[in-house]
Design a protein that fits this description.
- This protein has 3 helices and 5 strands, in the order βααββββα.
- By secondary structure, it is α+β, with helices and mostly antiparallel strands.
- The protein has one domain: 2-Layer Sandwich (YaeB-like fold).
- The protein is globular, with a radius of gyration of 13 Å.
Length: 115
């Protein structure tokens, strides 16, 4: 399985990494899970539909962050990624911390790269 990311993801990741230093290892652990189940499993990883594109887009809702003690997989970190089964590739699109409201995803960014 090949993993890549869009430039906006890298910027968001670096901002969050300053606050939660374990995030780099946490993302590697997520990659291990995605190698086994790239289409995810409910309720931890769900598909995002109704975008008007053919690319498979998924949202990781249960992301375990070691630095967030006592929260387990309900850390509030969300990861959006695209899965390309023919290429055996996952591309990370967006990562954010859900503080109060949990919006679905940045649809403009997804359409920019996958329309």
């Amino acid at each position: 399985m090949q993993f890549t990311s869009v430039p906006e993801f890298d910027k968001e990741f670096n901002v969050l990494l300053k606050k939660w230093r374990s995030l780099k290892n946490d993302l590697e652990r997520l990659k291990t899970v995605l190698k086994q189940m790239p289409r995810g499993y409910s309720p931890a990883i769900i598909g995002i539909n109704r975008l008007g594109i053919k690319t498979e887009i998924y949202k990781v809702k249960h992301f375990r962050c070691q630095d967030m003690k006592g929260k387990g997989n309900r850390s509030g970190i969300r990861v959006i990624y695209a899965y390309f089964p023919q290429q055996n590739k996952i591309e990370f699109i967006e990562i954010y911390y859900k503080e109060k409201d949990d919006y679905d995803c940045n649809k403009e960014r997804i359409k920019k790269y996958y329309s």
